[in-house]
Amino acid sequence: MSIKIPKEIKAISEKLSAAGFQAYLVGGCVRDLVLQKKPKDWDIATNALPEEIQKIFPDSFYENKFGTVGVKTNALDKSLEVVEITTFRAEGDYFDNRHPERVEFVKTIEEDLARRDFTINALAIPLHLKSKKIKVLDKYGGKKDLRKKIIRAVGNPPERFEEDALRLMRAIRLAVELDFQIEEQTFQAIKNKSSLLKVIAKERIRDELIRIIMTEKAALGIILLEDAGLLEYIIPELREGIGCTQNKHHIYTVFEHNVRALNYTAEKKYSLEVRLAALLHDVGKPRSKKGEGENATFYNHEVIGARMALKILDRLHFPKEIIEKVVLLVRYHLFYYNVGEVTESGVRRFLTKVGVENVDDLLKVREADRIGSGVPKAVPYKLRHLKFMIEKVRKDPISPKMLKVNGNDIMGILNIPPGPKIGWILSILLEEVLDDPAKNNKEYLEKKVRYLGLLSEDELKKKSEEAQNKKEEFESGIEKEIRKKYFV
């Protein structure tokens, strides 16, 4: 086994050794090195106290109560920019399944390793020894579990999960990240202690969920969360799709379909937003279902699902921009398009509704929806033709900002102050330009502005509302017939 220690780590260990202290590589970086993978970050454990570490490394920071000092290295490799050095420690009783009542610094690395979560993370490499041969300290059989591809709790599994309930999710995350199996007693302990997840901060749950969803085995991760009894405390709304059959156009239950859609996006390495939207795109189906068997219907499930997605992601404290993107993708994933029935102006209105910046991701969710339904082709001819049409009109004016006149122009032409009248006129102008981009020229639009300026406020407001509420051909009477036909 070949293990290479970066020069930055060697330099840190040499300084600790010169000051009379021990230094060990610990945790996930050792696991990754044994697996011949590049570590995402580097952690060192030492018998030096935090204040002693800071004396040795002036360019450092200490902003926690767990004995961890961040040492800056100025390395070009981002994983080495900051190396965390933590004093050997043991943790007292946990009063809330999240935080130890106290953190005690201890004398030996063996005591420090005893507090760790899983055997594969309870490995250490001594850096302070003179020996040229790298030795891995392995008190709990972590190397053996790595060879067997097993996730096993250190010591007593229930106790490990009672100490920090987030370890319940971390076990699932490691299993899908590494493509490992969870050892039977450890998995049983996860199931027995699953309710402890209720006390964990939503931000911590969100972060573990993101890491699960961003793996290639994301779908397996969701299934394991359900099998372990954890999904109930993360996204219980997804569970409503378990056993919820669809109709003659679907061979899978709603839950199976959503998970399969997620699997497609993970295989394609799509973004977090697309993966979340694929997982949640049909979350509203169980609540919209009418009837049973092959003629069951799910009218407006995309609208219901968008509202549910908003509540789910807000509850998990996702950033606003991610929430808005995912909700939009869920809301509009069910667009209708048929070659010859939808015109270029219809495509422009569609882009106005969903945003040019979102349309590519929306098409990816549509692909996932198709593959999740069991069809062989992610991109059939209709979808390829729609992509062609989108590229054709992508640069056409589809928002007020792209018009050749703006609010200031309107105020100048009509000699009026700022007010709602400006917005009404812009809406009317945009509607004309969506129908015919050739009308987006300054001379024509200025002439139109003068005409609209002659209308009363009531007439202008009515025309603006008609323009804003005009149905795209994607959601026209044609689509209603299709929706009836396909029971959606």
What descriptors fit this protein?
two-stranded antiparallel sheet; disordered C terminus; Hypothetical protein af1432; 7-stranded mixed β-sheet; 488 residues; elongated; Beta Polymerase, domain 2; Hydrophobic Seed Protein; alpha+beta; 4 domains
Task: Furnish the topology, listing elements before pairings.
Blueprint: H1 7-18, E1 23-26, H2 28-34, E2 43-46, H3 50-56, E3 60-61, E4 68-72, E5 82-87, E6 89-91, E7 103-105, H4 109-113, E8 123-126, E9 137-138, H5 142-148, E10 150-151, H6 157-163, H7 167-178, E11 181-182, H8 184-192, H9 202-213, H10 218-227, H11 236-239, H12 254-267, H13 272-280, H14 285-288, H15 301-315, H16 320-331, H17 344-354, H18 356-372, H19 381-393, H20 407-414, H21 420-435, H22 442-452, H23 457-469, H24 477-486
Helix pairs in contact: 7-9, 7-10, 10-12, 12-13, 12-18, 13-16, 13-18, 15-16, 16-18, 17-19, 21-23
